[in-house]
């Protein structure tokens, strides 16, 4: 009899370890106990669906057959005499250890497949960018990888009729039918379900041990201040993972170290850099060159290229902008074997990557966590302007950029941001940049890195080229026009008295109107009161806490809405675990910030009522 390995999450352990107030508490415990559903609706068809297995599986028949038997022995595949409603195709991908990973193609045929029963929903992943926001200079890191991660997670029995597979074993005259009882590789909901579980592990580690861990699917990264802390955190994480029912791939544990590869990228906390490993960088460059000589490519080949570009874009800021047209071309194809003509748009994006890689050494700096937030832009029908660190500029559309003059105001608002970045790009190197604009459309275009307008996309691609060269990130925040006074004045220098208004509002003037000006005024107010240096340090720390929260939640610091202010109170109480009196002190800074700007105290009646329950 073969040795059966049981891969199943432990319900009792999840019940005892997962905090009762966890945001996914009910979803996780229900799924661990009864199985997770990988569909959002049941099929409205009764005709059985049968797909032929792929050539990738048939060409490695002995390895695939061995893996299928292992899955059956482990109870993951269950043989059935009744054909399932949906029987999908099996594919395979070679693994480094000489075995294969089975792929359950849940996307074929298009209208009658497993994935057609799923509604698209966004899922938040802890990627490398997320990790870099938490890593500090000289931190120690540890990496943990899970073994057969998806195969620990059971499916709800209502899904069994939809996860069918088939295989003709050596010596058999007919195919054997079986269904998958665990998360399949190929089901569109599998990644989001597993990310939900691994993110919960991170929250357990934080709540139980105050240890910082992030996860990307089955990869975990520990971030600690010292070697000993990191080593201790590793032992605790391994204990928790085993207790919850996960299996560890011990051969892939790495650290504690200050240099470590995570998600295919080398992180160096001593130098605070990210690097693409030399071998992978050479392979990546070779892949780009092979496409340079192609006239057509299959969907599978395009997916491979886009996956590699996505990997490189973890290090190359703005790189994803030069994948958009490749993704659009890939999405025109239905089947993996279908071919597309590589059009001029595809070639233009490919050419950008080839040119950039000639000068790129595979290494960039981790972005500074302290953002630049003094860049404000505005545009009107006649002109556009921006201000940054006491500097400003003005453009008259008709005289300076006649091609832009007839465009819609939303497009002008976007273009002026690109011009501002171009002017001050050298000051933004290795920084996180927050741009303030009073135009919602411009904010959306900058944050989504795309626009339907081809003229704007020319500017957007230039913007992201500058991102790649100077290594900075951009995030746009919308502010009401009445609070964008300095940038508004800069955009209207064709009007009488606007130039004098600009000089009145510049940051070195105590009457300034931007966020930095407000902070200067508040600091001056504190000094004028003659507070001790320790008190001023405390206020600065509290102010930093508030601004950091606003950046994380993508909300404007001044003026803050009632709902957002309530969120900040909840953040101080629930996540910071502050006492009532401490919360009062932290809120006083927000109050001063608004009063200094001539705004209403955000502690409204509704918020006061909410505050009383703390």
TrEMBL record:
Domain Core-binding (CB): 517-598
Domain (Reverse transcriptase): residue spans on this chain: 74-267
GO molecular function: DNA binding
Keywords carried by this UniProt record: DNA-binding
Domain of life according to the entry: Eukaryota
InterPro entries found in the cross-reference section: CB, DNA/RNA_pol_sf, Hepadnavirus_pol/RT, Integrase_recombinase_N, Rev_trsase/Diguanyl_cyclase, RT_dom
Statement: the UniProt record of this protein carries the keyword DNA-binding: yes
PANTHER family in UniProt: REVERSE TRANSCRIPTASE DOMAIN-CONTAINING PROTEIN
Name of this protein: Reverse transcriptase domain-containing protein
Organism: Mytilus edulis
């Amino acid at each position: 009899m073969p040795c059966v390995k049981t891969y199943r999450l432990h319900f009792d352990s999840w019940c005892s370890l997962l905090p009762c107030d966890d945001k996914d508490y009910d979803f996780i415990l229900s799924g661990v106990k009864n199985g997770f559903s990988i569909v959002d609706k049941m099929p409205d068809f009764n005709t059985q669906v049968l797909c032929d297995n792929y050539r990738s599986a048939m060409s490695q028949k002995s390895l695939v057959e061995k893996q299928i038997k292992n899955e059956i022995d482990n109870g993951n595949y269950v043989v059935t005499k009744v054909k399932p409603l949906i029987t999908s195709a099996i594919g395979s991908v070679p693994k480094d250890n000489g075995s294969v990973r089975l792929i359950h193609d849940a996307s074929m045929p298009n209208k009658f497949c497993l994935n057609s029963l799923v509604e698209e929903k966004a899922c938040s992943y802890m990627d490398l960018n997320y990790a870099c926001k938490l890593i500090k200079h000289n931190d120690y890191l540890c990496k943990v990888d899970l073994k057969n991660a998806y195969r620990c997670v059971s499916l709800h029995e209502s899904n069994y009729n939809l996860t069918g597979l088939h295989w003709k074993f050596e010596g058999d005259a007919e195919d054997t039918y079986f269904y998958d009882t665990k998360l399949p590789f190929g089901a569109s909901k599998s990644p989001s379900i597993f990310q939900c579980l691994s993110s919960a592990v991170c929250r357990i580690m934080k709540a139980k041990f105050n240890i910082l861990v992030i996860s990307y699917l089955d990869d975990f990264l520990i971030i600690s201040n010292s070697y000993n802390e990191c080593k201790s955190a590793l032992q605790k994480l391994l204990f928790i993972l085993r207790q919850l029912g996960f299996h560890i791939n011990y051969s892939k544990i790495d650290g504690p170290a200050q240099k470590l590869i995570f998600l295919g990228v080398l992180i160096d906390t001593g130098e605070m850099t990210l690097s693409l490993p030399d071998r992978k960088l050479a392979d990546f460059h070779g892949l780009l060159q092979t496409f340079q000589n192609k006239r057509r490519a299959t969907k599978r080949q395009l997916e491979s290229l886009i996956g590699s570009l996505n990997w490189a874009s973890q290090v190359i800021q703005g790189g994803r902008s030069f994948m958009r047209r490749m993704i659009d071309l890939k999405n025109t194809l239905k089947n993996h074997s279908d071919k597309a003509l590589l059009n001029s748009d595809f070639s233009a994006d490919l050419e950008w990557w080839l040119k950039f890689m000639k000068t790129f050494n595979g290494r960039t700096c981790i972005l500074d966590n302290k953002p630049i937030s003094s860049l404000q832009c505005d545009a009107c029908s006649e002109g556009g302007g921006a201000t940054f660190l006491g500097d400003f500029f003005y453009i008259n559309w008709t005289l300076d950029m006649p091609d832009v003059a007839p465009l819609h105001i939303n497009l002008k608002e976007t273009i002026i941001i690109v011009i501002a970045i171009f002017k001050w790009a050298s000051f933004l190197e290795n920084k996180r940049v927050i741009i303030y604009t009073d135009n919602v459309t411009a904010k959306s275009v900058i944050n989504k890195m795309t626009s339907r307008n081809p003229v704007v996309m020319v500017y957007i691609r230039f913007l992201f080229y500058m991102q790649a060269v100077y290594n900075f990130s951009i995030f746009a925040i919308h502010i009401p026009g009445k609070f964008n006074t300095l940038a508004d004045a800069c955009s209207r220098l064709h009007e009488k008295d606007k130039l004098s208004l600009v000089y009145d509002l510049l940051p070195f003037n105590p009457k300034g109107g931007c966020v930095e000006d407000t902070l200067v005024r508040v600091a001056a107010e504190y000094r004028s009161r003659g507070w001790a240096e320790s008190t001023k340090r405390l206020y600065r720390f509290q102010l930093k806490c508030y601004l950091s929260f606003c950046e994380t939640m993508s909300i404007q610091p001044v003026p803050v809405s009632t709902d957002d202010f309530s969120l900040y109170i909840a953040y101080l109480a629930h996540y910071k675990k502050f006492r009532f009196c401490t919360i009062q002190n932290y809120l006083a800074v927000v109050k001063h910030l608004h009063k200094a700007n001539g705004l209403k105290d955000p502690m409204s009646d509704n918020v006061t009522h909410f505050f009383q329950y703390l």
